[in-house]
Amino acid sequence: MKRVIFFLFAAIFVFPETFSQPSNTLTPKEKKQGWILLFDGKSSKGWTTTSGKPVPDGWEISNGCISTRKGMKGGDIITVDQYSDFELSLDYKIETACNSGVKYFFTRYETGGNLGLEFQIIDDKAGEDTKQANHLCGSLYDVLPPDEARKKTNPPGEWNNIRIVSTGKKVEHWMNSTKILEFTRGDKTYTDGVSKSKFSKTVPAFGMVKKGNILLQEHGGVVSFTNIKIRVINK
Question: The pTM is what?
Answer without folding.
Answer: 0.91
